[in-house]
Amino acid sequence: MKISNFWFCLIFLLAPSLTRGQTQVNGINQSQYITVLGIAQDGGYPQAGCKEEHCLRHWRGEEARRHVVSLGLTDQSSGQNWLFEASPDFTAQLQHLHGASGINNLSGIFLTHAHMGHYAGLLQLGREAMGAKDMPVYVMPRMKEFFESNAPWSQLVALGNIKLILMEQDKPIQLAPNLRVTPLKVPHRDEFSETVGFRIETSEKSLLFIPDIDKWPLWDRDIRAEVSRVEVALLDATFFQEGELPNRNMSEIPHPFVSETISLFSPLPNSEKRKIKFIHFNHTNPLILEGPERDRVKGLGFDLATEGERIHLRN
Predict the structure, then answer these.
(1) Within-domain flag for 5
(2) pLDDT score of 260
(3) Which stretches within the chain are classed as H helix?
(4) How far is CA 26 from CA 16, 30, 131, 288, 314, in A?
(5) Pick the residue with more confidence: 191 or 13?
């Protein structure tokens, strides 16, 4: 059958819309992507008890809430979703993930460590709420022991609400034929568990997720080398700079200041700086709200994670 020039041109023009970030195989959507479900540090924005102007702006209706850091991973070909972190905003974030993906299931939860913003949402899986059945929860060895030995987490295990899946440092976990996740151990305040970041990979793209770490020089890896291996890097931006918490000893809660990360990457080409999306903002960090600091960071070639944005892992 001969195709007219009109229809040939129309098909040609429409083709990119089918392949940008996703492909169609026998009518099935093969897209794999990350949905950013939260960008704030463990206490969210605004934090409880905060009476500063930047918090009052929310209570006056001038700023939207920022949810605690969490990612959703979707594989449309297998019809699966996973969460990275079970934050205190778990309820809203699970609903967001279901709505954004059109997939009303959850195949598992990956946890970085045992600080409140990263695992407190697991309580929603218990008998008082969802009453989940054997929800896979991926954890490192110390965190597995912590859950099994301490209430109320031990009840989730005993009742079969969660099923703890042990991870090993640097050992990839194959979630689908073309999708794997690798935990990377990082130095942090490990009171109850070790801390990891994750590298999330398909055959086409990869993403680095490190929401919490002490300082980059304390890691036994070069963060610049790790960023060079991926297309997107979601990096710890808890604090903007020294002195941000005037009544706290910031050395007791070490994180890489955004200003330090910028200095570390500034000598590198823009192609490397553009990979970085800052995430995990404390409510005191000016980058959590629109303002001149955000514009300045973007002007230097870096980016900032935004709630609701989708990061494709396929070309």
Answers:
(1) no
(2) 95
(3) 5-19, 53-59, 90-101, 116-119, 141-149, 153-158, 223-228, 258-265, 270-273, 292-299
(4) 17, 10, 37, 42, 17
(5) 191
Residue 9 has what pLDDT?
41
User: Kind of pairing, strands 232-236 and 276-279?
Assistant: parallel
What 3-state class would DSSP assign to 183? strand
Write out pLDDT tens, residues 69-124: 999 999 999 999 999 999 999 999 999 999 999 999 999 999 999 999 999 999 99
The domain total for the chain is 1
Distance CA 305, CA 134 (A): 32
The answer, as to whether pTM is greater than 0.70, is: yes
267-294 mean pLDDT: 95
User: How far apart, in whole angstroms, are the C-alpha atoms of residue 176 and residue 73?
Assistant: 12
The SS3 call for residue 84 is: strand
What's the gap between Cα 23 and its chain centre?
24
Q: Is 70 part of any domain?
A: yes
* Rg, the chain, Cα only: 21
Q: Taking the alpha carbons of 121, 122, 128, 131 in that order, is the dihedral positive or negative?
A: positive
- Alpha carbon 93 to its chain centroid, in Å, reads 12
- Specify the pairing of strand 195-201 against strand 310-312: unpaired
| pLDDT beyond 70 at 13 | no
Query: For residues 307 and 48, what is the distance between their CA atoms, to the nearest angstrom?
Result: 21
Residue 6 domain flag: no
- Tell me whether residue 10 is in a domain: no
pLDDT tens readout for residues 120-148:
999 999 999 999 999 999 999 999 999 99
Amino acid at 198: F
Q: Which pair of structure tokens corresponds to residue 246?
A: 């005037």
Q: Domain range holding 78?
A: 28-312
Cβ of 84: how many Cβ atoms within 10 Å?
A: 26
Token code pair at residue 3: 């195709």
Q: Of the candidates 178, 224, 189, 167, which has an alpha carbon nearest to the alpha carbon of residue 73?
A: 178
CATH number at residue 235: 3.60.15.10
